[in-house]
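Hey, can you fold this one?
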Amino acid sequence: ILPALSMSLLMSGLFASFGAAPAILMGGIGLSSLQAGLYFSSTVFVVFGAGMAAPRLARRYGPRRIASAGLATALAGGCLLLLGPESPSLSGYTLSMIIFLWGMGLANPLGTAITMGPFGKEAGLASALLGFLTMGMAALTTWLGSVLPFPAVTTLGGIQATACLIALILFRCSSLAGSNTRSKA
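Sure. Predicted structure:
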């Protein structure tokens, strides 16, 4: 359950960015709706590139190590947004989002595989639980993003940083629990 919770928390940071981005990109930075849509479509390439790199890096350094590095990278992106100015420039916001999305793109496919690995014949049930946890966390963080009384950038950075920090802790705990179980066998 720990890897599932960690990946769900990580993905909730992405969904929170979907909720906050119009206020940041259109309300704060001044992009048009078309420009904001094009902005979103361009960010897919970051996640795609990280997703392509993840298996190669995992073969070399191990999937748990790369997934942890991805979570730490996503955490750095959230912290950069949280600690940056309330009214960032497009380049400042983009830098923090690229860092977050790169980390998410590394961690999520590997973390999902790690989550699903032990379930074999129950993979469908495990996948449904993972989807439920992800959507539940996404609902929570998207709601928080709309009710917290802080600027959208601060709220999003806080949500991403907090979700990724907890996710990293849970994932590392699952790694330690897995290594303790293997060493006792």
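Residues 181-185 have pLDDT under 50 and may be disordered. Let me know if you want another pass with a different chain boundary.
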